[in-house]
Amino acid sequence: MPRGVPREINVRILEGEGVTKYFGGLAAVSNVDFHVDEGEIVGLIGPNGAGKTTLFNLISASLVPKPGVIKFKGENITGKKPYQICRMGVARTFQMVKIFTNMPVLENVRLGSFFGTLPGMSSADIAREAAELLEFVGLSAMSATPAKDLTLANQKRLEVARALATRPELLLLDELMAGLNATEMAQAMELVKRIRDKGITIVMIEHVMKAIMSVCERIIVLHHGEKIAEGTPREIANSKKVVEVYLGEQADAGS
Amino acid sequence: MDITTFTSNKRFQIWGISLLVVLAALATLPQWVGSYYVVLLTFILMYILITVSWTIFSGPTGYMSLASAAFFGVGVYTSAILFPMTGAVLPLPLIIVIAGIISFILGLLVGALTLRLKGIYFAIFTFGLVLLIQRFLLWFEMNITATRGRFVATLDNNYIYYVMLVIFVATLLTAYFIRRSRFGLALQSIGENEEAAAHIGINVTLVKVIIFAISAVFMGAAGAIMASKLIYIDPYIAFNPLLSFMPVLMAIFGGLGQFYGPIIGAAVFAYLQEFLKTEFPFAYMFTFGLVLVMVMVFMPSGLVGMIQRLLASLKEGPQEKSTPSWTLIFSFLFGILGGLVSWFIFRERRGARVHLKVGGVVTIIVIAFYLILLLLAYLGELRSGYFGI
Ligand SMILES: Nc1ncnc2c1ncn2[C@@H]1O[C@H](COP(=O)(O)OP(=O)(O)OP(=O)(O)O)[C@@H](O)[C@H]1O
Ligand SMILES: [Mg+2]
Description:
The complex is a heterodimer.
Chain A: E1 12-23, E2 26-37, E3 41-45, H1 52-59, E4 69-72, E5 75-76, H2 82-88, E6 90-92, H3 105-116, H4 123-137, H5 152-165, E7 170-174, H6 182-197, E8 201-205, H7 209-215, E9 218-223, E10 226-231, H8 233-238, H9 240-253
Parallel strand pairs in A: 3-8, 3-9, 6-7, 7-8
Antiparallel strand pairs in A: 1-2, 1-4, 4-5, 9-10
Chain B: H1 3-6, H2 9-28, H3 35-61, H4 68-82, H5 92-114, H6 119-145, E1 150-151, H7 157-180, H8 182-192, H9 194-199, H10 204-230, E2 232-233, H11 235-238, H12 242-254, H13 260-279, H14 283-298, H15 302-315, H16 326-349, H17 352-378
Helix pairs in contact in B: 3-7, 3-10, 3-12, 3-13, 4-5, 4-6, 4-10, 4-12, 5-10, 7-8, 7-10, 8-10, 12-13, 12-15, 13-15, 14-16, 14-17, 16-17
Magnesium ion (MG) binds at residues 52-53, 95 of chain A.
């Protein structure tokens, strides 16, 4: 619950308290507190192995935090199953695309509506919605193509469409831009903004600074599993600590 | 379950009508043919229904279950206990239902315990279950009930046939509707990417366990009616491990891509098996194995897949005619060799005149198989590099 802040301005859609995950002796995510407000686009950055994907896995219930609590819309969702999290309104994409490669594009999206939403949608509704979503991500022309025949950029779009088909309120995007060329990246950034305009809150992991800085309203920085900074893109870009551990490295790499 | 969304109406009608015709033929069959064929057909129906029920779960998910023999065996034992020669405890239809329910519960238990295992581990554990129950029963029968085996009340062949037919139809309908339902879609997506399936709202565990248990029902029911055909049963007979592998092989033989693939595969296979078993009792396991290996290597999409592609290439004319690769020629030679080997093997086992016939037929089957392959190669069916070399 927001503390001392008027509700209608800052509604916390997602909150984490002391979220921790150990793999053997390695603290992949360590005592991280975070929150996401409704309607925001939040960036999650950090060097390789910082624990970003692990944090997504914890939110989407692939993994269970130990210890730690994750709340969605004020409700404690720790220990729920992935399908329950999805039906509550949290959808995700994967760093390595995980689409149903042998099914046609349209079928991938229909599956999202079929299972991700509450029962009661008619097949006609589902078909119409799937077609609309393909239009939305720009895959209408390929609705009958087997998903495996798509380019990486299109596979990523498909994965986004499938996630949207579950009618999420919160969308977790894991490195949507990775592997895309400049044009595709621009399209992807535009897509992210259009998703937000639909009223969906977004948390995105990204290594591409340009994308993060221009799209996100707030950025959380992880390093060795710990949250080392949080703030507006400007604050992050000027944070000495962040520049030291991460952005300096990025600047060296030329991105 | 909205069927029309997944099937175009015309397809559905064609299938419906042909199914009714086949059903009518099957239902009136005992009036035209002798009891040998009724019995043979009972076996064939049994193999088909076991294969189809195996396919319900294992087909789309890719989880290779080897528990079939356990579910079948549970059915057999249910009958043995409730329908002994000394007098039936309950009416047979009720016993069959009970057998189905017990198999369902066993399926739920096994599913809940083993379905988090992946790949070969799942196969091994399910197979272990067969042996576990078999051993346990063996111990139980010897030490607790002090019975070596049990005798089941016999029934009229036609009666067994009709009961099998009813189970058969129930299996086919269930398989069809599951495949066309959202459960079918869920199973397919689980087979493609289980993690993604979970994250788009599919209760992966529940779907897997329920469908696994449903597929067990029919195997149990088939076992219950088959018991009275077997007459004498003991744990070895009831829990025959071969029955765990049979459906896998038959389904792969027919092809898992289409609904009717496993049906056709099991029908051909079961007939072949009965034929080989009676005509060539010694050659049968060997030929069986040989044909299977060849099917797996050369027809990865099964009989139906191969025929479909053959028809397609006949319709469109030979596509990019390729000369058979050296692997194909090699396999052809191997086939002849295989035939010759089988010929020599059977020669030692039997009297001189019989073995010639046996070996000859086996060799002809093997060679014919390879000739077909060669023909397919010319039709552009098998392109060079097809074998991954
Ligand atoms: N399932 C797992 N088992 C063991 N260790 C894991 C597992 N998943 C992640 N890790 C480890 O946890 C750490 C954090 O991994 P994670 O994938 O969350 O990093 P990331 O920030 O997403 O990195 P990248 O930018 O490379 O995607 C890494 O050291 C990784 O090796
Ligand atoms: Mg990652």
